[in-house]
TrEMBL record:
This is Aspartate carbamoyltransferase. Transmembrane segments: none annotated. Pathway: Pyrimidine metabolism; UMP biosynthesis via de novo pathway; (S)-dihydroorotate from bicarbonate: step 2/3. It catalyses: carbamoyl phosphate + L-aspartate = N-carbamoyl-L-aspartate + phosphate + H(+). Its EC number is 2.1.3.2. One of its GO terms (biological process) is 'de novo' pyrimidine nucleobase biosynthetic process. Carbamoyl phosphate binds at residues 57-58, 107, 135, 138, 267-268. Catalyzes the condensation of carbamoyl phosphate and aspartate to form carbamoyl aspartate and inorganic phosphate, the committed step in the de novo pyrimidine nucleotide biosynthesis pathway. SUPFAM superfamilies: Aspartate/ornithine carbamoyltransferase. It comes from Methanococcoides seepicolus. GO terms for cellular component: cytosol.
């Protein structure tokens, strides 16, 4: 199974067998990341990093992954300090960086930017998030986290928070459908998962339940995947507080959960997870963040043809 020169734009490009191959490759490479060691798998290769939006985990884990594999990183840096500030188009910038790098990681605020970039690039484009669209490498690390810390087959998962605008959730839903997961959607009506995604899940014979309360689902699930409720979506601060408080995850709430329940979050978090949860056996979000390194090591090695 060859991934060489493959663009990583959307999870819909991947079959279950392809996803499993990436997860297996990440598991093989994880000891390098865990030991903070270095290999020479990508020695002599250069990764172009272009971020048009703020990022901590995605950017740093991609750069760490490339360096752990012995490669080099070439960063666009601040957009304001580049020719983009002079009006250069994304297509032209991609054409330029294409001449310097063996692969390009792109985060952009406009949905569809990664797909556009792939049409002008001769090297693989890895979508690190495009507006409210897709974030496939986050989905790969989420699946890897679930496999390492829980189980994918027969999974019962609840997705809580901003399901309307959260690109991590949109990509994850499709991927989970390939594993036959039972999905509970927890959000206020204003932030419910788009109807077309719900219909797509149901067309794949996925059991989907909707509720506005975590308490309704907490006793029966294996994974609780929380996302940040974006304050800027609410013109009324009081309404925001009401919604945010209704989705708060506390140690008291988790007393009702299965002992093996894992709480995940793509981070950054605001107030949706009580800090006291960090010290419980359920907290999995910092492990999840770490797993971004081996999964991105796997993707980089595969698309650059260093591993099959």
């Amino acid at each position: 199974m060859s991934f060489k020169d493959l663009h990583i734009i959307s999870m819909k490009s991947f079959s279950r067998d392809m996803i499993d191959h990436v997860l297996n490759t990440a598991e093989m490479l994880e000891p390098i990341a865990r030991d903070k060691a270095k290999s020479d798998i990508l020695k002599g290769k250069v990764l172009g990093v272009m971020f048009f939006e703020p990022s901590t985990r995605t950017r740093m884990s991609f750069e760490t992954a490339m360096m752990r594999l012995g490669g080099d990183v070439l960063s666009l840096g601040s957009v304001d300090a580049s020719s983009i500030a002079k009006g250069e188009t994304l297509a032209d910038t991609i054409r330029v960086v294409d001449g310097y790098a063996n692969a390009i990681v792109l985060r952009h605020n406009k949905e569809g930017a990664a797909q556009l970039a792939s049409e002008f690039s001769s090297v693989p484009i890895l979508n690190a998030g495009d507006g409210a669209g897709h974030h496939p490498t986050q989905t790969f690390l989420d699946l890897y986290t679930i496999r390492r810390e829980s189980h994918l087959d027969g999974l019962k998962i609840a997705l809580a928070g901003d399901l309307k605008y959260g690109r991590t959730v949109h990509s994850l839903c499709y991927a989970l459908s390939l594993y036959g997961a039972e999905i509970t959607l927890i959000s206020p009506k204003e932030l419910r998962l788009p109807a077309e995604i719900i219909e797509d899940l149901k067309s794949r014979n996925i059991k989907v339940t909707e509720t506005e309360s975590i308490e309704d689902a907490i006793e029966d699930i294996d994974v609780l995947y929380a996302t940040r409720v974006q304050k800027e979506r609410f013109p009324d601060p009081a309404e925001y507080r009401k919604v945010a408080n209704s989705l708060l995850i506390t140690p008291e709430l988790l007393e009702k959960a299965k002992p093996e329940l894992k709480v995940m979050h793509p981070l950054p978090r605001t107030n949706e997870i009580d800090p006291r949860v960090d010290n419980t056996k359920h907290a999995c979000y910092f492990k999840q963040s770490f797993y971004g390194v081996p999964i991105r090591m796997a993707l980089l090695a595969l698309v650059m043809g260093a591993l099959e």
